[in-house]
Structures are given as structure tokens and as C-alpha cells.
Specification:
- This protein is an alpha/beta fold and about 400 residues long.
- It is about 35% helix and about 15% strand.
- The chain contains 15 helices and 14 strands.
- Strands 3-4-2-1-5-6-7-8 form an 8-stranded mixed sheet, with helices on both faces.
- Helix 10 crosses helix 13 and helix 12 crosses helix 14.
- The N and C termini lie close together (about 5 Å).
Length: about 400
Amino acid sequence: MKILCLSTSNYYPFPTRKQNVMNRMTDAQIIYVDPPVTLIAPLKDPKAQPRLSMYKQGGKVSDEHPHVTVYAQPPVLPFYNKKRAVNKVNQKRFAKYLAGICRENGFHDDFLLWCYSPMSCDVVEPLAKELGIDAKALWKRTVYDCVDRHSAYPGMIDPAVVDRQEEDLASRCGVVFATARGLYERLKGFNDNAYLIPNGAAYELFSTAASMEKEGIAPHFGFVGMLQECIDYDIIRAVADCFPEGRVSLIGRALPGVDLSWIDRYPNVEYLGLLPQKELPSKIKDFDVCLNVFADNELSKDVSPLKFYEYLATGIPIVSTPVPYQVRDYADCIYIAEDKNDFIKQCRQALSEPKDSPRRAARMAHGRNCSWDERVALMKEILERTGEQ
């Protein structure tokens, strides 16, 4: 099997769903293409400049996963999420680039096109034309793996344009995967071959935290994941206020626009930044409570947070907001709070949970069932059944 993966996350350094899925497709040859930056991106973020030139350097074979070759995407015109015409120009140019790396890697008319962005709706036919293959056949071999409600993101987008792009992609491709029930319910209206497959966890890695000896002061609360606008920082501050004798650790990358200056006012809150995945179990094992905190908005209700499944794999008590909605599927073994005051109450409940509580075993069992190995096995089964592999 050959897969051309058009990702919305850079392969390095932080593994998201895209890397976890592709890394486990070990019986396939993978071309993994990082997302683009716009030509004006360096004006807003100097860190974008290296990515603008990286695509000229060719592909890089993954050190740990030799079946994966990573390419950077050429820079694009801005405002492609506001004007469909701009996206079509970008994707036509992108198709020429993709055709080149397909030929370089022996991809002809026998590969799956695996997409993560609605804007990929406009690349399929230009790519087929560049490769001299049938566009209808390529559409049938296209997979849309939907991980977010893309039109709910803030920034320079027109939600109506993004939703229409997604509808065009989902309605014409061979298979659709969705990470959350709300996404699935919407997309199955466009495609009968739509399947709900939530995110997962590297169970073999995160379950090691359960056998490590805990260190440090108690109570220790921890959050692991992207620090973005949809996180409920009021709840994190409330936890720090109500447990001044304890510690709150935040681990993850802060996205642009997120203000963490308030941390300076809280001596019991520490921001550790983005850490390599392999180091996370040794940090999480010191948590008494794992925090899953999302603000109640259109984006949050349909996210499928990797952190939640990783928490499950450790067995450590989890206190969660009622969004994303899928956390209610695990109400038998986690603590769900309806508001900020209830969140503090549930934290106290979680802290009092006995070490030998059956809830701990239940969390780890759920984590095992939600492993990436299980998720990818199901994806491959569906692809085989639908004839897309």
C-alpha cells in the first residue's frame, strides 16, 4: 500500500493523530507532506521563515519510522480560507509539486490520497491531471480524516467557505473518518462511507506511568496538551486558588494569541512548555489529578483530545469539563464537572479516590481499548472492506 498524506500538522516535533496513524501503517510506503505557510507568514512569525525554504531541500526519511518520508509544502498565497478562488490557485500549484514527489517515490495510480484539510478538495483533480490518471478513480481512493470543526477556528477564515470546501471533499471521496460524534453526524450526511474513529493514545508508552513511583508534593494537578484558545483557563486558575498548598503543572506548546502572563501571579503554577513525548509518562506519574479543561464553544464540543486518552492509559484520576461531549462515554471512571465550582468539588473527590479503586483499572482498560494500535487496525479493516486499500 502507498499513501500520500496531506497533513495539517508538521511531522516534527509533536506527534498528533496524523503522525500516530501514519507511523502505524507499517505495511505501507508513506509520503507525509507538512502543511504550508503563507508567503506573508514571516511578517507575523519569524519562526515561519525556515519552513518557507525547507520544501526545496527534498524529503527526509523518518529516523524511527523508515516507511515514512516527510516533505514540506511550498508556500501559499494567504486568505485561502476566505476566498475559494485563492485556494484553487494554491492547490493547482501544489498539485504540480505533489506530482513531482509522487514520481520521485514511484507513486503512479496505485496510492491512497489521505487528507486532513477541507482545502484539499481542490487538489484532487489537478493532481490527477498532472499524473495523467483518472480523476474519478483518484477521488475513490481519497480518504478524508476529519479531526476538527475547521470552520470554528478563529482567524482569517470565512466559515461558509470552509464548510463548503469540506462538503465538496467529504461528498466525493471514498472514505471519511471523523474523530467526534458531532463531526461524524455532519459528515455522514455527505457520504455513506463515514465512520466514527476517535483519537487514541500510545498505550504502550503512557501505561508505564502506572508502575512508576510518585514523587513531589500533593496535591499535584496536571494538564498536558496544546495551550490554545479553547482551553478554560479560568478553571485552571480556580484550581490553583483553591489548592494553594499544591501544584499545577502545564505541559505543552502555547499557540499564538494565548496569554499565559497570568502564571506569574501564581507561585503554585508551573509552565513546562513542550516536552518530548517519551518524557511525558515520567512527568504525568507525579500527578494526583489529570485536568481535561475545555471552554464550552463550537470548537470544543467536537474535539477529540489526545491528552484525554493518554490520561486514561496512566490510570490516574481525571477531572473533566462536560465538553468535549465524548467524555461522557467514560463517566463510569472519570469525574465530570458541570461548572467551575463543581470542578473544584470533583477535584476533591478525585483526590480522595483510593489507590486500589476499581476506577483506576477501568481507566486503564479504556486506555488499552483506545490505543492507536486498535484505532489504526479498525481504519485498515474499513479500508479493506470498502475496497480502498
